[in-house]
Amino acid sequence: MTNKYIYFIANWKMFGNLRTLGSLNKVISFQKKFRRNKFKLIYCPPATLLSPLSDKLKSTSIEVGAQNCHESHNYGANTGQINSNMIKAVGAKYVILGHSENRKLGENDSLINLKIKSSLKSGLKIIFCIGETLSQKRKKMTKKILSRQINRGLKTIRNKKNILIAYEPVWAIGSGLIPKETEILEIVQFIKKHVKGSKVLYGGSVNTKNINILKSINSVDGFLIGGASQNSKNFIDIIKKTFN
Ligand code: PGA
Hints:
Blueprint: E1 6-11, H1 24-33, E2 39-44, H2 50-56, E3 63-66, H3 84-89, E4 94-97, H4 100-103, H5 109-121, E5 125-130, H6 134-138, H7 142-153, E6 163-167, H8 181-194, E7 199-203, H9 211-214, E8 222-225, H10 232-243
Parallel strand pairs: 1-2, 1-8, 2-3, 3-4, 4-5, 5-6, 6-7, 7-8
Helix pairs in contact: 1-10, 5-7, 7-8
The protein binds 2-phosphoglycolic acid.
């Protein structure tokens, strides 16, 4: 894995304020020192921090993404929402869509499909999350569920080069549990076969301990990291261990 270009995406979820951004100075200087390695760092903070974080990272190669957006890229009467053009305008380049925490709130595959399309139109790159629940896994439905999420989520989207797929088993998110290496390998290869040429990330309880196992799974192109990315030292540790 270490010869490949690896993505490390920090999903801060509902975490962080202006003061928290100070802790990224460590990551910025680490990133400068480790230029020889091929990796891309992307921070996805809450919407309140998209603009200040984009400003802070302007002269670095670390990029910024949002965690969700409305399905229309136009302005509208949608209290509490932001759209992909607004995200782009503050300097962010990515948006996470289809995260299970938003699917749980009622987002379905066709809504996610509309969000992906309007975000691509705005010129954003997509971090498209898919994953099975524990009961689906127990019923051996994982591949069926993932195929459905992919087919519906990416419906009528021909050019998929700006879409990264993040395989995040719902039961692994925030639980400290991860699938077996062989399971991740099988699923990532399955996704790559389904979406030809795609980059596939793994997400769900990635931490400083299990990264040694996860990094050895050859076909994984990177990691979407929640809890462990909120602490800069842990985030740096995960990156260092990936390349050690
Ligand atoms: P976690 O979250 O690393 O805290 O499990 C990952 C995610 O939800 O993207």
